[in-house]
Amino acid sequence: MPACCSPFERAADQHFNQKKAAEELGRYRTEGPGPTTRLLQDGIAESGALKGTLLDIGSGVGSLTFGLLERGITRAVAVDASSAFIDAAREEADRLGRADAVRFVHADFVSVASQLPAASIVTLDRVVCCYPSSESLLRAALRHADECLALSYPRDVWYVHLGILFENVQRWLKRNSFRTFIHPIAMMEQIIREAGFELSSRRKTWMWSADVYVRQPKPGH
Predict the structure, then answer these.
(1) Are 134 and 57 in contact, with CB atoms under 8 Å apart?
(2) Structural domains present in the chain
(3) Which residues contact 17 (CB under 8 A, 6 or more apart)?
(4) How far is residue 152 from each of residues 54, 103, 165, measured CA to CA in Å?
(5) Rg of the chain on CA atoms, in Å
């Protein structure tokens, strides 16, 4: 990890603290993975891309990482900007007997992307909305995706905009520098398609969209 953290990493590390990590890990252990995680797992399996290695960006406590390992992924790199969440994920990996299968990286992914290997599948579960520049995040993620890119993000509807505005105002009042965003979906889709990927599935909740893209074969292959 770089000696000097990025502004995003500092904000995320403070926002996603030990209390939040403990709550998230407890919820995962009692209730299983959250809705978007389940949708992404199902979409990846349906796409036929569920094999090889995983790069889980914004891995949190590891619910998507561990779920995909159970479904056939052989090894994973889990990256998160929160030290508390990385510690919680390591604890869960030990409990599940998966410590040898996962490499944990505490960092802003964009800052360390050049130091990380490519993977068969790259995932960003509820991550794009946390990052100020979706373009730089997606382009870095796509450079690492050999076969599949899966991501979940807030739907571009009025009530989600209102909810995120309320959350950001609350954070501003508390002098919390972390923010969430609704990035233009058309722009994200264009970046992904220009990298050679096509939409395999899109599943939605009232708030989230969970998309799975697969790399298209080059002409003549």
Answers:
(1) no
(2) 7-215 (3.40.50.150)
(3) 82, 84
(4) 16, 22, 19
(5) 17
Give, for all 221 residues of the chain, the pLDDT tens digit. Answer: 444 577 888 888 889 999 999 999 999 999 999 999 999 999 999 999 999 999 999 999 999 999 999 999 999 999 999 999 999 999 999 999 999 999 999 999 999 999 999 999 999 999 999 998 899 999 999 999 999 999 999 999 999 999 999 999 999 999 999 999 999 999 999 999 999 999 999 999 999 999 999 998 876 65
Residue 164 corresponds to which tokens in the numbers above? 């995120």
As a three-state string, the secondary structure of the chain is: CCCCCCHHHHHHHHHCCHHHHHHHHHHHHHHCCCHHHHHHHHHHHHHCCCCCEEEEECCCCCHHHHHHHHCCCCEEEEEECCHHHHHHHHHHHHHHCCHHHEEEEECCHHHHHHHCCCEEEEEEECCHHHCCCHHHHHHHHHHHEEEEEEEEEECCCHHHHHHHHHHHHHHHHCCCCCCCCCCCHHHHHHHHHHCCEEEEEEEECCCEEEEEEEECCCCCC
Q: Is 57 left (phi over 0), alpha (psi -120 to 50) or beta?
A: beta
How many angstroms separate the Cα of 39 from the Cα of each of 19, 46, 159, 181, 208?
A: 26, 10, 21, 21, 10
* Global pTM value: 0.93
